[in-house]
Amino acid sequence: MGQTRNLIPIIFSSFQVFGALTSCSLKVSDHFYGTGESLLFSFTPDLQVYNWTGDNMYFIKGNNESLSIGAGE
Q1: 73 within domain boundaries
Q2: C-alpha dihedral (54, 58, 59, 60), degrees to nearest 10
Q3: What InterPro entries does its record include (predicted)?
Q4: In this structure, is residue 72 part of a structural domain?
């Protein structure tokens, strides 16, 4: 069976929406996982897509208290 992608919208108000599309299912992990097919997006009010820059392999990491999608050095 294949991996499930997740669409995660976060809505602050009718004019502030951002979120992520993950390359695989979410899971609790001490290490980053996923692929460069994950991306972040915002509507403020126009669509902006933030694709993987290729600078690192920090895609998805989460536990029972937090979720990180993308990260810098």
Answers
A1: no
A2: 180
A3: TLDc_dom (IPR006571)
A4: no
